[in-house]
UniProtKB/TrEMBL annotation, chains A, B:
The keyword Cell wall biogenesis/degradation does not apply. InterPro entries: Ald_DH/histidinol_DH (IPR016161), Ald_DH_C (IPR016163), Ald_DH_N (IPR016162), Aldehyde_DH_dom (IPR015590), Aldehyde_DH_Superfamily (IPR050740), ALDH_KGSADH (IPR044151). This is 2,5-dioxovalerate dehydrogenase. Residues 19-461 form the Aldehyde dehydrogenase domain.
Length: 526, 526
């Protein structure tokens, strides 16, 4: 572990915080890991934020090819870390090698996808309205493009120590937009964070960018994140984590003298609707697919299928048994942190004790501090509708089946749900009519609707929406995965009657960047 | 005034509120106008919001051509109101006939522009990622489109009783997006509001839409608006008005169990930078253009030039004299309401009494309750930088000149400004270097940068941004004027592995709507 020093990275410098010390904890061995990290204070937060502000004007005007090259350089530098990164991430998260290697691939892949997106250029949303000097009230020449919002604070998530952390989707999309980034490292994987942070720091230097483009702050406790969001230089926040954490950041951001947007991805129970024909024709296949999705990564996915709706009857009863059997066969897994594991046990025990809930598969007693086994419960739709607490997220491999009398009641449950990241329909062609009846409700409730799949596994692509109405996220108009994530960190500016010498390249006559532009309302690339 | 009954419009019904009665006030005659209006209560708010919710699923899925036709029908129905609308608006606002006829043209024009935008279809942001079944981890078919957010509450502004009111930009863009609208009529022009509301109500019926697509609530006091924003059916808010009003709505929206976005356009002093060569070569022309812009509509524009920065010296002194002279020649005008007029007098008197401010042109003593004459003041940049109150908006024809020692100090003042709707550069070619130095600061501070024009006069077009960083607006990523305003009321939804029978038309194979779509990252219309 030669490269991990326990320092925060403030621009080009490595700085040891003077606040509370902490170490990473291995959920596998149950031991603290070396080295010691230190919580940074207001001075370091101010340095990072002020450097980010100083970097902003030059960084946001780097041309799109240079910025694309920077993202690719970060990807290269992450790969350069080699196996040390994987080993450290395994030790800190308890996640297996194959998963973390896959996640590294995803992280590198999304950096490259944003590089491609940058080069393509339509994210600039360039618009040109030509002057109409002869009109009764003459129209001036007006042009518009997107510019970066400003320095962004990113809060790494614990459950994806690479893909949703220091160089994850929030950082990649903010850097792509032209925003300097200050990351608050998740204290569950500080060593992994430092390694990736140093890779970004090196990429900044290799690309000759202002050092303030990236900083990494270390620490435990809520004060650091709160102070970071309060800093006047920070102009937006990206967060993936708990509802409580997201709500706290939203409140802090709204109370600033200048309120700023918070993109918080918080909680979701990802309902799966088992439609009758599909259940009749392939209930067992669905049950085993469901069990695999539920236990993937020990249930520690934002898109974990935590709620399964079916219509009462033999087929649903058989599905419940088969799902319980499939889960009984699943091995217990190591959860990310003692805190997550304890919260999971509490959530599951709460359901097990609930008078209106029947246990189908009990979690096994924990054999080690972070071990967790899947759990499955069932309740009646009428009870689910009456008891709001039954729709609380239990983060981990636990799911609740809801038995509905009929499709009308299924729709009623859907209508009662809070906002979700996803909803899934398991359906056959003969279920189409019923699916068409549910669709309008689901569209209002979620960011992504899946058919005959399971919600875990979020593709990083052009059409992906990893978002959804509150409380799935704080802003349903955004996605934190996929190329559209860049729009969270951009805003439009109009230029009226401006000379070629002053206009940004994206808007100059002759389209020197060769990007898609909207001229007098018509898209074109001429 | 046959058509004005003083009722609120709840869906297809006309309803008399049971709360506090009020009448429109004519700032010209100083008299109350007939008929009496009544403030609606919680029951009417709930009816309107619940009807809007009931209308939502059918309205948001009307095809884009039907929705375009609906907007055009609203425009036709507004024109059908004939001169009664203009006369009533003149009586209620004190604005002259030509201005209101122009504003009616603008209102009708923006409805038609949104109809065109709808038909063109790229607002749907349709995206298709084809399945990659052979990939190591197979990729499913994923498609994305924009859907409407939900019922929108619109708060009409007093200063544009047509273009920013009942059928103004917020309503037009929300209806275009597929959102039902509940308007809170501005109590300064309730009769104008009712006439336009009835035109929309008629268009809803003519187009065979659900009656809940539009309602109009009447009332005085802050309770009505607050209760409307609190109603759970409301999913977004459009507001143009004071900073205090906007901040209050933002706080209410953030405190809801489900927070919702507020698009508030609040305050702006629209700095104009007089660069030295332009001032030397055509100071007098600029001074008369400035005076015309400042006094347009008695200064009651959000984009009124309230702050003029120049570099100390003979040219700037001469400009100050010429501007004061041009303003001395301007006739006093009738302001919209006694409240606005009183606030203007207070603001101007505050500047006149300020120890660091010199009066260049004093407001004349008021001859009638709503009469206001322009005022002009000057201060030193160092004083402006030290006294935050000097950058407060004085709504009306008052402006403050700021004398800077040099361009560095001019840039320092720009850097210190809060977010603005606009910034203007008066410059000659020889000023280009200096303008390039100011541009990065201005881009960070404003939504629109103008060269050699004046900020009043906001074109309704594709490339317009009428927005800007806080406190100009509550969301710098949005515009309330121009076709991009539609995006305030849309959010993306992904459809994964969905059959042709279930997919919305925008995403079906073969592109049946013939719209621009992004397929595997590439824009096309095939």
């Amino acid at each position: 572990m030669l490269n991990i020093t326990g320092e925060a990275l403030i621009g080009a410098a490595s700085v040891r915080g003077t606040g509370e010390a902490f170490r990473a904890f291995s959920p596998v061995s149950g031991e603290d890991l070396q080295p010691e990290f230190h919580t940074v204070g207001l001075a370091e937060i101010a340095s990072a934020a002020t450097l980010a502000q100083a970097a902003f004007d030059s960084y946001r005007e780097t041309d799109k090819d240079s910025r694309a090259r920077f993202l690719e350089t970060i990807a290269e530098q992450i790969l350069e870390l080699g196996d040390e990164l994987i080993q450290r991430a395994m030790a800190e998260s308890g996640l297996p090698r194959a998963r973390l290697e896959g996640e590294r691939g995803r992280t590198v892949g999304q950096l490259k996808l944003f590089a491609e997106t940058l080069r393509e250029g339509s994210w600039l949303d360039a618009r040109l309205d030509t002057a109409l000097p002869e009109r009764a009230i003459p129209r001036p020449d007006i042009r518009m493009r997107m510019i970066a919002l400003g320095p962004v604070a990113v809060f790494g998530a614990s459950n994806f120590p690479l893909a949703f952390s220091v160089a994850g989707g929030d950082t990649a999309s903010a850097l792509a937009a032209g925003c300097p980034v200050v990351v608050k490292a998740h204290p569950a994987h500080p060593g992994t964070s430092e390694l990736v942070g140093r890779a970004i720091q090196k990429a900044v230097a290799l690309c000759g960018l202002h050092e303030g483009v990236f900083s990494l702050l270390t620490g435990i406790g809520n004060g650091l994140g709160a102070d970071l969001v309060r800093h006047p230089a920070i102009q937006a926040v990206g967060f993936t984590g708990s509802r409580q954490g997201g709500l706290a950041l939203m409140a802090i951001a709204a109370a600033r003298p200048q309120p700023i947007p918070v993109y918080a991805e918080m909680s979701s129970i990802n309902p799966v609707f088992l439609l009758p024909q599909a259940l009749a024709s392939r209930g067992e296949v669905i049950a085993s697919g469901f069990a695999a999705s539920l236990t993937l990564g020990v249930g520690q996915f934002c898109t974990n299928p935590g709620l399964i709706l079916g219509i009462k009857g033999k087929d649903f009863e058989r599905f419940a048994e088969q799902a319980a059997q499939a889960l009984a066969a699943a091995q217990p897994g190591t959860m990310l942190t003692p805190g997550i594991s304890a919260a999971y046990q509490r959530g599951v025990d709460g359901l097990a004790r609930h008078p209106k809930v029947k246990t189908l598969k009990q979690r096994a007693a924990a054999t080690a501090s972070c071990q967790a086994a899947p759990a499955l419960f069932i309740t009646e739709a009428s009870d689910f509708l009456a008891e709001h607490a039954l729709s609380d997220e239990v983060f981990g491999p636990s799911s609740l089946l809801v038995a509905c009398k009929d499709v009308a009641e299924m729709r009623q449950v859907a209508e009662k749900l809070e906002g979700q990241l996803t909803a899934t329909l398991q359906m056959d062609d003969a279920d189409t009519e019923m699916a068409l009846g549910l669709l309008p409700v689901l569209e209002r409730k979620v960011g992504r609707i899946l058919v005959n799949g399971f919600p875990t596994g979020v593709e990083v692509s052009t059409a992906m929406v990893h978002g959804g109405p509150f409380p799935a996220t704080s802003d349903s108009k955004s996605t934190s995965v996929g190329t559209a994530a860049i729009f969270r960190f951009l805003r439009p500016v109009s230029y009226q009657n401006m000379s070629q010498a002053l206009l940004p390249a994206a808007l100059k006559d002759g389209n020197p960047l060769q990007i898609w532009r909207r001229k007098d309302g018509q898209l074109g690339r001429a």
